[in-house]
Q: What sequence folds into this?
């Protein structure tokens, strides 16, 4: 009988510790669910709650409970996860479901990357120090406030990083030992990456192709062809199913977040892709430093495989308006390619010689790293951000209403979050099927699933997503309440204020709840709506009488 050696014993100990940790983690999460001490403050995340409730209610993937199938949730895989979590924890607060979900996948991708680096350690140095790189990776990430923010945001960001971590590890394993099993895992990981966020398609497709091309051994061409056949077959089936269900294989935000989609939108400069890129690259500095230090004349293939999909994807992000792109949310899913790319580069360099680690580091790499550090000083960053804002974001056409000045109401500002809470309180008390048009609907939609929400900006409305907003379509649907969008949407706001239907058929309260509110006079629940509005108004505007409105 073979004697159990030290690495195996250490591996068993690690597995026991991880297993106990997972048990303790889920027990703690269950307790926190019941106590209601967890929450998410990211408004967009609550859209998944609304979709998930409709899915569990038998309405399919629908924004409203009328059952009209809507591809507004960009991450279908995350939607399914949230629906499963709601089914398992029906009494949990929605914010807790979201926060714990993103935290779970944040913990998950750190674990996958750690296990991947342990598995692929081949040099003597890293074999003897298997935990060195995983501990370094965990420390480099967890000291970042952006890692922590994404880990409790409730968004699909950490799931996307988790799936891309699986993709990176599965690709390397496939290249080392191609076969049916490794191909199946790679194809599944690639599809999960795409299903989580369709903008990860270049990661899911190009990274396996490039890495396989450079590092597969025998039967390279045939193995690459097999992956292409398997992945494209799944994509074709996915496209067909989405077209049959939604009438469109692409999520609606793909259309509405294109740069320039909203004519008159003056908030584009606020979502500066250069600023977000710097945030992400600063977090990746330790891994870029390792990559540069360990690089040699043979590292070109590694860099091409790991970073060609990243560069192309980041270039695409400059063609969209990154609305709600806080904390480099769009860029974060590329994290595994920086981590695994730096690890594989270091591993390749160490295999050249087993001398102590630091003598391998090249002078060229050291100089490049110093230059990189200089690049991330505050002055260069601010300069690039300002140049992008002034040179590459065209000044929008600002639309102004012809009559808005005479309708301005003297209402104090509440703030974005407080206004959302106010509209949520009103919406909670509305009858089933009340039609409310708005743009800030994440938390409102989750708290008031019974109302019918008309999305003014098209993220969950195919007509507005494909054609842009126009008042004729909105008033054709007879919204009972209109909560105006923020003033950055100058064309939408001006078009609503100038439409005769608004003044003829609605009680209009300018600037109410910061953006303006209108109630249709012949709405079936008009009396109830006005009573609820009056009661809520007293709470949020105690020094201002509602009867002064409309002017």
A:
């Amino acid at each position: 009988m073979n004697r159990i050696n030290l690495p195996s014993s250490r591996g068993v100990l690690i597995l026991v510790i991880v297993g106990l940790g997972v048990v303790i983690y889920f027990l703690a999460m269950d307790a926190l669910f019941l106590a209601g001490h967890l929450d998410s403050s990211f408004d967009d995340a609550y859209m998944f709650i609304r979709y998930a409730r409709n899915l569990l209610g038998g309405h399919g993937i629908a924004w409203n409970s009328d059952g009209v199938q809507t591809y507004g949730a960009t991450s279908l895989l995350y939607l399914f996860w949230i629906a499963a979590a709601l089914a398992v924890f029906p009494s949990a607060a929605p914010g807790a479901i979201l926060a714990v979900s993103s935290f779970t996948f944040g913990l998950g991708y750190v674990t996958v990357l750690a296990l991947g680096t342990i598995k692929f350690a081949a040099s003597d140095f890293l074999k003897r120090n298997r935990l060195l790189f995983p501990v370094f990776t965990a420390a480099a990430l967890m000291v970042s406030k952006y890692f922590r923010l994404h880990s409790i945001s409730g968004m699909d960001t950490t799931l996307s990083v988790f799936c891309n971590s699986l993709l990176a590890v599965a690709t390397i394993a496939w290249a080392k030992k191609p076969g049916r099993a490794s191909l199946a895992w790679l194809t599944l990981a690639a599809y999960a990456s795409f299903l989580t966020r369709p903008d990860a398609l270049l990661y899911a497709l190009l990274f396996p192709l490039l890495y396989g091309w450079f590092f597969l051994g025998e039967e390279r061409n045939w193995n690459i062809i097999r992956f292409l056949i398997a992945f494209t077959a799944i994509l074709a089936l996915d496209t067909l199913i989405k077209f049959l269900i939604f009438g469109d294989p692409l999520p609606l935000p793909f259309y509405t977040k294109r740069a320039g989609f909203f004519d008159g939108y003056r908030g584009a400069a606020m979502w500066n892709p250069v600023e977000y890129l710097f945030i992400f690259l600063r977090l990746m500095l330790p891994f870029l430093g390792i990559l540069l230090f360990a690089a040699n004349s043979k590292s070109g293939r590694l860099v091409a495989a790991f970073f060609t999909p990243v560069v192309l994807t980041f270039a695409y992000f400059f063609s969209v308006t990154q609305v709600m792109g806080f904390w480099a949310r769009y860029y974060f899913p590329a994290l595994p390619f920086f981590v695994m790319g730096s690890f594989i580069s270091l591993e390749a360099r160490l295999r050249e010689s087993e001398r102590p680690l630091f003598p391998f580091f090249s002078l060229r790499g050291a100089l490049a790293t110093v230059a990189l550090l200089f690049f991330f000083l505050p002055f260069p960053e601010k300069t690039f951000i300002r140049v992008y804002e002034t040179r590459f974001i065209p000044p929008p056409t600002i639309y102004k209403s012809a009559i808005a000045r005479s309708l301005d109401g003297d209402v104090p500002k509440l703030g974005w979050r407080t206004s959302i809470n106010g509209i949520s309180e009103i919406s909670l008390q509305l009858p089933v099927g009340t039609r409310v048009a708005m743009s800030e609907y994440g938390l409102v939609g989750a708290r008031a699933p019974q109302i019918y929400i008309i999305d003014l900006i098209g993220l969950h409305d195919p007509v507005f997503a494909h054609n842009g907003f126009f008042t004729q379509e909105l008033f054709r649907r007879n919204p009972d309440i209109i909560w105006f969008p923020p003033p950055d949407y100058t064309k939408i706001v001006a078009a609503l204020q100038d439409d005769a239907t608004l003044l003829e058929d609605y009680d209009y309260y300018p600037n109410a709840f910061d953006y303006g509110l209108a109630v249709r006079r012949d709405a079936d629940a008009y009396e109830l709506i006005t009573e609820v509005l009056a009661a809520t108004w007293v709470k949020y505007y105690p020094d201002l009488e509602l009867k002064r409105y409309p002017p």
